[in-house]
Structures are given as C-alpha cells and as structure tokens.
Fold each of these.
Amino acid sequence: MMTEQELLQKADAFIDANMDGIIKDIKAVVDIPSVNAPAEEGAPYGKEIKRALLEALKIADRMGYKTVNCENYMGYAQLDGEQEKYIGTIAHLDVVPAGNGWHTDPYNMTVKNGYLMGRGVIDNKGPFILTLYMAKFFKELGEKLPYTLRMMCGCDEECGMSDVEYYVHHYEEPVFLFTPDSEFPLCNGEKGHLGGNITSKKFENGAILDFKGGMAKNAVPDEAYAIVKGDIAKFPAADRITLTAVPEGIRIDSTGIGGHASHAENTINAIGVIANYLRDNDLVTEGEKDYLKMVCLLCEDHQGHGLGIECDDGKFPPLSIIGGLMRMKDGVMKQNFDSRYPTNTTPDELVAKMAKLGEQYGATITDVTATKPFYIEADRPEIKACLDSYNDVRGLNGKPFTMGGGTYARHFKNAISFGTEIPAEPLPDFVGKIHTADEGIGIERLKMSLKVYILALHRLMQIEF
C-alpha cells in the first residue's frame, strides 16, 4: 500500500503536470457571465448559468467521468468506487454581478503575475475545477476508491440555494461532503441567515424621484445613485458624492467600499452615504428623512448596534447585518437587509425589534426569509481528516472556525466548508477578494489547495461511514 509520503510526491508531480489544463478549464467556465437571470424553459436560473453548467459537464465528460444533469438545477460528475455510498464535493457555477472598478475583463479570465483574474475564479468556479482534478488524480492511480466520489456543481448558491434543495429532495445524500467555498483550515458551523426589506410608505410628493444601489443582496455596495428634485446650487459638495444636473433634478452618485455580507468590516455602504447626505443637508421631505434614518442606522454599523439587534453567543462571531440593494418603484423605497445571526436570538426576535424601530421612521419589515444556524462537532473523524490534511500540507496548527457566511454545507446532514480562501494571507494590490472588483486567486494557492484536497480525500476514503 502506498504511504502518504509517496502519495504526496505523486500529487506534486500530478499537479505540476496538470496546471496548464487546470487554468484552461477554469477559464472556460469563468468566461461565461453566469449571473442569475429570469427563468426560461429548461433554464431555471437563466441561459448563461445553464451554459456554464453545460460547459462544466462537458469538461467532466472529457475527463472520463459519468455526468448527470439534474434538470439544469445543478449537475454532477461521478467516479464510481467499490460502494454506491458516496463522498461528495459541491461548488457553484453562478456568480454575483461583476460590479464596477475592474482593471481586467471579469468575463475574460487572464493570468497576471501568477494570479488568475476574473469573476468566479475563487467564488466558486476555480474550486469546482479543482475537485475534478482531485478525482482525476485518483482515477489515474488505477485503483477503485472504497466509496464513490461525486463532484457536484450548483447553479443558485448566490440567490437562494434552491438548486441544492432540489437535489436533496431528488437524490440520496452523501455520507460526507465538503464545499470548497469558504476558508481554510475549515468551517464546521454557519450562523443563521435572515433577509428581507425595510420598506417605506408611498411618497406621493416626495423629493426623491429614484434611488438605486447595490448589485447583490449579500454584498455591501460600492456605488449608488439617487435623483432628487431641487436646485444644484443648494446641494453642497461632500466626500464620496458627485453631483450632476439632469432634466428631472439632481443626480447624486456615491462611492463606497464594497465587501461580502459576512465580512463587512472596513466597508463603506454607498447607499448609506447618499442617505446621510440627503438627511444632513435637508434635501428631502420630513417623511423621507424619517425613512432614510432607518436606512442610515442599517448602513452605519455592520453589527446591528444602530438597529438595536446586536448580539453574541460566544460560539459564533457576533451578529452581522448589511444593506445590499436599494430599489425605488412608484414612490416606494425598498432597502434589503442581509443578517447573519448567532444562536442566542431568533429571526422572530430580530424582525420584531426592527419592526418596532421602523414604527418611529415610517418603515415596515417585508419579504422576510430565514434559515437556522448549523453546527457540526469538530471531533468527528471526517472533520479531523480534513483539518489534519490542511495542517500537514502547510505545517500549521489551524483550528476549525464558525462563520457568518452561508454555504451549501448547511443543506446536508454531514458537511463542512473547506477552503480555498485564506484571508489572513495578504494579496497583491491588484488582486481583489470574492464579490469585489478584480477577484483573483494565486496559482500557488490553487496548487496548495489541490494537494490538500487529494490528501483529505485519501484519508476520508479510509473512514467507516
């Protein structure tokens, strides 16, 4: 039987030999702008996501796997093992909109100074391709794995995860699964998620004609605009604000600092910049000022102090909340909120507190959705196998963590999220993070991650499930 040292030596050689192919296959899926769009016949999440799914399955077919398209909700590639029981991986092919501020084409992946640049290279197309090559390594060894291996690719992770709900209702669950859609060393718990809208009353004679900000519900917006009645001479200059006279009145554009909802520290919400500007300079009606105060309270503090909903259970990070999308229609403004909450509160409690506060400001809480926190004890052998594999490859002593991000893991009975991000390790100035401009991942990170996954899968295959 091969020793782990021999396995890792073979893995190093395999990774070096296949790196060009990995980069080429990542590009093939990153170059497709697979942003969620209205459903079409045979394409529940829009034609571009379907196109990305078909391209991913085409790559898997070429590599010799059995492939299954799950009614275009998701798909999978399978390497049959000695047992029908299967260990799974799941990544997603849908991406958030590109947004603004890119220095490369987000949908024409490029390699710059050792980094892959493009929307989805980390979140989450690049990691999906890694799972196919993880399987390729074992396929080329020529011996059947003890368990079947199934590499799943989802299509609705960013906008609700209805794809995985479809999957678990139509297919048998894996005995264990990891999703490469988080951070190393590994995450064994995720906060609950609460979403909804802070909705205004209808303003019949308001000053605000339009207000729009954000590209995704789960990202702090870096740009927003409003169109407001008035004389530009009465609109003072301000930081992060650009003023333009338009036929309807004054267009106010703002710039912020974007970021993911689960990592909102050090962000500046562009919607909040406009809301504060309008209130501070008395540019809107009293009713609008009241509603915008509620928006300001949401945007000014990502831990919910402004809304009076802050909490911390000591197991998870403290509650977080951001406002991602502002939209206005027929005189009604809707500001969405995205909260990740720990175990010492409930969605009902949070909504009740926000609703009570909203009574002061002419706002109601609408369109509420919620999911519960999930947590898996870290002493399970499958968790230890993954954690030890990361630590052994890198010579570290990393510990499992819990987080505010929501991944596919929460939808399975026995699952974790496992790489490929390492936020503590600095990136070059030209490389952005997930959900931001210039999303990028280093080739060396890809190599290390694949090596970790190979070792982890080797160890997982030896566990009695």
Amino acid sequence: VGGGDAQDGGTGDPGKNRSRMTTEPPEPREAPPLHHRRPGQPVVVDVFGDSVAWTLVNYLPSYPDLDARDRTLMGCGVSRTAPFRYFGRLYPRLMPTCRRWPQIWQAAIARDNPDVAFILVGRWETMDRVLEGRWSHVGDPEFDAHLRSELDLAIRIAGGRGAHVLLATEPYNRRGEQLDGSLYPEDQPERVTAWNQLLRSVANSHPNVRVVELGQRVSPEGRFTWTAGGYQVRSDGLHLTPSGVEDWIAPWLLPQLIDAVPR
C-alpha cells in the first residue's frame, strides 16, 4: 500500500484551488442509544482512516465474535483543506473521495450499523496545509480549531446509529528524510504529539468516546522505532507490517474492541 500518495499532484498558487469543505451531514436531533452485544452475533467494527488504518484492519487475524470491516479511504484523513505539502511535494487540491469522506462514512454507518467505529487518522492532519489563504499546521490555534471541527464531525457521523466510537492515537513516523538528512515537516515528532493531544481533548468533550493508545503500542519509547515488543511493526516508516499487527497489536487491540460493547 502506498503512503497515501494518491492525491492530485502538480504545482499551483496556494491562494487558489482552496478546497476547504463546509458541507456537513445533518446532525441528529438526539443521540441514539448505544449498542449492546447482540446475542449470537459478532461485534461489528467499522474501521475508518487512511492507508495506515488499511494495513491495520487488513492484517488483523480472525478473532472469535468479531467482524472487522475495512471502511478506509486511501490518501484521506479528515482535514479537507488544500493546497498541502506531503513528502516535499505540493498538492494543490484534494481527491474527490477525500472531499466527500463525510458522506462516504455516513453511507458505511447506515449500511453496516456497526457496534464499534474505530477511527485511525492523523497522518494527513500533521502536514502543512493552506487554511483561509495561509500556510498552517497542527499547533496553530486556527488550524487546531479546524481539526477539532473535522474530528467532531467524524465522531458525530461514526456514532450516528449508536456505535461506540474509539479514536486511535497516531504513532510517530519516519516516511523518509530530506536531502540534508532532516525530517519532513509531517514527520516531526512535535506535530504527532500535538495531534494526539488534540485528539484526546476532543475525545474528552464527547462522553461516550474512548481513546485507544495505538501510538504508544507502536511507538512505546515515545519516538519512532521500527520495532516494538520484539516485532518489526513498520514496513516503510509509516505503514504497519502483517506480523507486527498479528503478533503485537492484535492481542492487545482485539479484546478492547470486544469489550467496548457491553452485554
């Protein structure tokens, strides 16, 4: 799986082609009752996110009483503002799929009616992006307000039919190095830390949303590492490995997905 490098490329004026989306699905008038275990039925988990989430859900081993479904979108986080920079390249606009993630997620929730919605985003939220005509990034108050709004929307959609919403923290990344040996901005540890702090803060504002510390499981030393628990967990500095998911992440994560739904 590529590093989400499927966005439209090219060069352009950052003041043009801004694609910050403001259309949002309608909010429910009242929160639906949260799901309980359905006797004789597996716990249905919809996994939302980008290609990192894809590696997670597709490498999960089978597990009793669990039905994990891939609802990821390649190259798409929740931020819908552009242009942005990734891996040293300027992308002037979003893919149509990324602009429409709220509608796509909402359709998946309506189709699956999952017990759990597991959201793993953050990679695309740590990049330099144009917001309201200027370059910005996580840690800037205005950009953080934008991220909070998008994450709030993701939570409302994911929990729209009573699913228990779990937000996963992002691991530290090292997708590559610049010519001078430095990290690209999106790989700066400070940005991942800032995103995870923002994510926890947003989760705290929603009484029924839990945080899953995936970042700590994959990056247990509080920095990027190729291995964790004696297993190689990263394939390219970003995505997860099959053995890392199966042997290190799954034994820790799968019981949490089951336990998220009360009997």
Amino acid sequence: MSTSTNNTFTALDEFELINSATDYALKRVKTGWISGYFYQCELTSVFQPIFSVNLGRTIGHAAYVRSKSNEEIALWPWQVFAMASKDYQLIELDRLCRAIHALNYHFNHTSRSDNLFVEVHPRLLESVKDDYGRAFESFLDLIGMKTSRVVIEIPAIVNRNWKLLQHVISNYRSRGYRIAANYNGNRSDWMVELGSLYPDFVRIEASDLMRHEDITALTDTVHSFGASLLVWGIETPEQLVAAKRTDADNLQGNLLGKPVSVIETIELTAVSRPVTKP
C-alpha cells in the first residue's frame, strides 16, 4: 500500500474519531473537505489568504462560511444566521461554523504555523456572558490545534461597548487566542484606552484607509503597542499601493486572493514593502 493511501486512511480514521466525539453533524467528502449541517442547510468553509508584507508570503487565512439549502440553493451567511432567532440556536450555529473551519484547516493545510482567522458573531458575545472561547478551545484540543494559532476577529460593532470589548479580549487572551480588532473609525489613540488588552492585529478596510486623513498616527499607535496593522478588502491596485505606503504589516483582499474552497499558500514578492531611497 502506498504512503499516500496510508495517509488518506489515517486522516479518515482521525476524522471519524473526532466526529464520534462531538455532537456536530459533520461530513467529509473524498477530496477531504468537511461540511456540517444546521437544520436544512449544509455549511462549509472558504479561505482567503492573508499576506505578510515583510515576508512576502501567506502567513494565515481568513475563514468564511458558505452554505446551501437541501434544494442546492446557495445562501448568504446572513440568511443562515437569520434562522438562529434564539440565543441557543445562534450559539450552536456559531460554534459549528468555527468547528468546520478548524477541521478544514487541520486536515487540508500542511503548515502547522500559519494562523487561522475566524469571525465571531456579535450576538454570541452578548449571549455568552463569560468564558468566551472555552467550548472552541475544547474542540481545538480534540483535533490537536493550539489556540495560539487561532486569531479571533472581534466584530467592529463591539467597539461601541467598551466594557464588553475589554471583557471579550481578556477572556479570549486568557485562553491563548490571538485577537484582531477593527479600527474604531475616527480616533488614532483608541488603543491606548485598552491598556494591556491591546489586540495582536488591528484591521482597517482598504476603502477607509484611502479616506483616512492621518493614517500615520494610527500606524504609529498600532506599532507602538506591538500590534500589526492588517489592511483588508483590497480590491484595486491603488488600494494596494496605499496599504504598502502606510507601513501596513499584513494585507488581505480579492486583488491578492479570493476566498475559495482550497487553502492556498502563496509567495508574493510583488507584495514586498517598497524600498525607501536614502
């Protein structure tokens, strides 16, 4: 029996063991891709690469859910989450999505150092009063994935509730997760108020970056706290140039790589930081 066949059987056996140890309704197809079910909807993952400007290559992937009904009709994520009208349904759905993302990343990505960026639904943060990330940590332990490889993206709307934002960051960080927060919009010093709870990544949309009058102050603040600036939603060459000029650390957008049902590891020398002449 070939080595590749042995590896296939090992992966299948591992998946079956994991599947039997959870309450999720999961399925693994021959290609190795994993999906789950919420009511009458099949959910799966797509991944968009995130690039390091300094390294010029992929350092992680942002995971997004894709879904379809039993009638094979594609559904937007908001349509699926709209079905979870009760808090317990939302908690179940949100945790299922993150479990599917983690499984697909675990079984279909050869790197064990890249970061998995996952979103958390804002209603979940309001429904679960404490122990954020505990259930997901237990699932990650089951599949042998460290929480330090997972970046939790805090929804921008949480910035409006300062106490909740601090509480959420504190909880996730205590369990070893890394944190990505969205830029507050109109203040370059908003991280200062977080004190020791500053995020690992600060996300700013490329379109907002183009309109920002004092991006240097934001970049300096982010870097002074040891965080990385991540410019996302890069759709045009002009936005890419602007992101590199702002001393951004990480880049994400359809111009660089679209969300797809495969985990792409790409080296992009074209994304390297421009050289400044003396």
Amino acid sequence: QILGRATLDASTLDKALEAVSQRGRAGAFHHTFGQLGSTRLISVEAMAEVVNVKEIQQPPGHANHMISEQLRQLPQRITGSSAARQHCVDQHLSQSHAALSAERSLAILRDTSGGDLPVYRCADDDPDDENTLATALFSIGASTVEWRVFTRRDTDAPDAEGAVSTFPE
C-alpha cells in the first residue's frame, strides 16, 4: 500500500510502474494503472520477489489474489471471499464480449448473487467482516479523467464525482 501511494507522485505511467515494481516488498498487491491522454491500461501483480506487468487488452476482473499465469501457482492465501468475487466477476465478463461500459461495470461491482460472499456486500453479519465500503468508477480519456464514487447500491446517483483535466506538477 505504501508503494501504491508512492505512485500518486509519479508524473508518468512508466514512473508509477517503476515505483510498484520494486522487489523485496513485504507482501503482495495488485495495481491497475492508466494515464490521462494514453490508451495504455496496465495490470501489475507484485509479490516479494516477483513482479508481473501486463498491458490490459480485454476487460479483466481482479480480486485480492494473484491470477496471472506467471504468479497464480505461487504460494498465496486466497480467502473464500476473494475466490468468490473473482469467480463471479469472471463469469460476468465471459457472458458478453461487448465493450465494458460504466453502467455494466457498476452492475458487476454491485452483484449480490454470490450467496454469503457476493461481490457487493453490506450484511451486518458478514462472515469475514469485508463489506463493501464504496465503489468507484474512473473514466480515463484523452484530456480528462472523470471519477464517480458510490456508497450505496440502490442509486445510480454518485455520492461524489469530479474530473481532472491536468495533473499538478
């Protein structure tokens, strides 16, 4: 998480990738990066001694464990919650090869069909205390990054939203 925060100071996508690709970290993490004005979208899975950087070609889903061909066979702890969310998101994405719109993305992130461990969780008696705090959608364009944050599942109105057209120096 500290390396992830360090990327906020990166002035380019490549500098952000460099920051999170350092070896010798204490744990594992997944990052997705994009940059204003670029069509590149990059997935980075990083473990203590191995880093997998991949340019995203098709919309993926990514829960809290390593799923890339290079890293998924390495020892890792996959919680029931993480496995269930990954399965559900993969299932949604495989059902249609149409472009992944903001509306469809939000519907997937709000899915409650997974029994005790759905993608979107807000149960008082949640079995592993990992309820959804918020859902955020980012749209990266040629000149603007737009963002919307939703804290409730029952409305299409975001709780916060904004746009950035340039990044501070």
